[in-house]
Amino acid sequence: MTGYQVALPELTALVTSLGDVADALSALVVSATTLGQRQPLLGTAPPALAMADRLSATAGRAGLTGELSAADDALRDHHRALVTALSEYSDLDEAVASTLNAVDAVTGRHG
């Protein structure tokens, strides 16, 4: 056999693993969101309040939570695209195999 051969079970397992990574990243987004919403208990002195505000901002939407959310969105988009491509490839592969089997049945050839 020449050309490429796609191993669908292995490819499906890789895409499934990518989905698992996306789920874990979503859990990190939730955790970072919770962290960003908590006010650090650093005291009431002006320097402590300023530091608490900076820590909250760093963990919030403009910081860690924002970065993780953007990564989560990008990963989920790629995962959806891979799932769609894999499904379309599998459907096309089945259709081609069916057509070739029909041609073999009509011509009497076995491929």
Describe the structure.
The protein has 3 helices and no strands. With 111 residues, it is mostly helical. The chain starts with 7 loop residues before the first helix and ends with a helix. The mean pLDDT is 89.
Quickly list its features.
single chain, 111 residues, mainly alpha, 3 helices, rod-shaped
Topology, element by element:
Layout: H1 8-37, H2 46-59, H3 64-107
Summarize the entry for a quick read.
With about 110 residues, this protein is mainly α. It is built from three helices and no strands. It starts with 7 loop residues before the first helix and ends with a helix.
CA(first)-CA(last) distance: 11 Å
Radius of gyration: 25 Å
How would the global form be characterised? rod-shaped
Largest beta-sheet characterization: none
